[in-house]
Amino acid sequence: MATFIDIAKLAGVSYGTVSNVMNGRGNVSSEKVKRVQEAANRLGYTANFDAKSLRKGSSNTLAVILPNISDTKYADFYLSFRNFTESAGYRVSLYIHDSNPQRESDLVQEIRASHPAGTAVISSLSGHTNYYRQAGFTIDELIFAEQKPFNDYDYVGFDYSRIGREMGKRAAKYHQVALLTEASDSYVTRELSAGFIQEASANPSCIIHHYDKESSVRSAALALDILSSDSAPEAVFAANYSHAEMVDNVRKRFFPQKTLDIYTISRLFTMPETSYHKYELNYRLLGKATAEQLINRIEGKAPSYFQNILLPEAGFRSWNPGPVPEKSCLTMLTLDSPTAYIMKHMASLYKSYTGIDVNVTIYPYDGIHELLTSMNENNSFDIIRLDATWMSWFAPRIYEPLSKLENNLKDLQERFLPGLMDRYGSINGELYALPETPSTQMLFYRRDIFEDTAIKRLFQEQNHAALRLPRTFGEYNTIASFFTRSINSRSPVKYGSTITLGNTGTAATEFLTRYFALTNDLFDKNDHLLLNTPTGIQALNELVECSHYANLSFSNWWRDTARDFAEGNTAMTILYSNYASEIIGKESTVRGKIGYAMVPGENPLFGGGSIGVSHYSHHKDLAYHFIRWLCDEQVASAMTLLGSISPCRNTYNNYQIIDTYPWLAMTNECFEKSNAHRQPHAVNVSFNERHFLEILGFQVLNAINGRCTVKEALENAENNYG
Known about the structure:
With 722 residues, this protein is α/β, with parallel strands linked by helices. Strands 13, 14, 15, 18, 19, 20 and 21 form a 7-stranded mixed sheet that branches. It has a 6-stranded parallel sheet with strand order 2-1-3-4-5-11, with helices on both faces.
């Protein structure tokens, strides 16, 4: 293996220079940093992290012991555990005990010898087994998840007694049921079985046949015995999803005529899967919570006593929207966006449950406004999805108030992220729509080049400041200039930034992004427009400057901007989160290299869509039935995984989604910080934002193209708005 001495010889520098570069120390020039990096790459040098840990006298490694990772719930746990720990600067070593206590005991000794900073365990041990105590683990070194062998250490899991009771309530309606669990002496089985039997026994005629793991090692044979016996159950309740699958497979092969309800405890399913009645547990959240608590222990952020942390269960999540108010066909109008095409697939799923056709019509941004303006009872749709910024102008004209369709508005408020109902549905105190795809602006950047030692040193040399994420658009332009190759020939990318200027609406938004980084109000208290002001002039000057650092010929719409960034030629972009999934699409060259942060000024604009029932619809109750289903957590979460955005709180605890689109973890923070007042203050006055953006965007484009000065552009915009 190559050494620092080998690298120093090839790079033509001293050993000390190589050491400083590799350890991020010292005042080394960008030229020498580049030579050291190139030499290390040519020699195939890789850092010996274990040796580093020994020199520091501690380890940055966490051990995790699991029964297996072939079971998807444990794979989910491990992925989120690893993702969280790596983001916190730790590495993970995985150990598998195959549900064998003796193997687990051997692993305990192996792990103690390797001195990890901490260990997380989903154990196969019963409460009387003392392997971990005997091995000398302290409370700050060990945490148990799912199974709870004893009380000396932290535990993160679910309330299995409550889970058992919820399953038992379902069992109580049958006469013969089979309960399949894991080992009888395990914590989960004890809690689950007791709760199940308690509730199921409320029906004296319900006969429960309990099979634990010891009697179900030959699970296929056991399933055959259960289904062929004289007391064959009407329903099977399986504590493990694989047991449910085995029972179902045996039924299909040998008893195809038999009707059997199968209930099971499973991991969280983000996409539809309807073979069984699933009580879902969020194992990705369990992995994240376990990692977080273990790191808090290691870093001295947890109390001195052991803690039992119980996580919420997703429970029985039904994709079936239930009985429909009537049988008819629905029509839906939506603005073109990634969500629009996902909705077509969701409409097909809705039809599979209800038999109701929902015909989705997609209109481009420039065409839908005219259609909405001329809408009446002769050319209406049943469901309309609006750009959220158009709500003030259109909602009272085209939407049926939800108070006429919904009796429990409080339930809706609790379902969604805080504040979304007001932002996306309410006009002058009247609720007209649901927040279907709430999105906010975020800054995305090439993390790999921002963290490159040679590039950071070069930026320091040229700008006499450290390369860091921009806090203002002045800093943003400085960084964008540095990463524009026509200005800096040593830039690793061609452009420093993107700008979306395809129409007046996007051009105006680019200006407002910079404007609201400086202030919160577009109108004064007397509703006079505040464009031709020092703030407006600064914002437009910053936009005009940024146009010199971007590929102006490409980004006509936000989707184009996302795809442009995905090609890898740009250092930074500001995108709405409902378009950001495009940056990790199948053609992306920057997947795994993307960082994300709050936009400069920390006052992001919000966008996305609201969805409501047309005032002119002849099927209002049915239309509302569909949009309520569309905004249910399980449907909204599936749409988010496909590239949309969910309004539902629980979606943001779904770490299959967060691990896929990690920037979504910032969603609530972005909404909380968004404080841009872009409409007049007067109550009961509709604001035609589309008309305003056309006026503003036209003048913004004039300034960028040099047809007038910045001040003239803002004067013209104010006068034309008039």
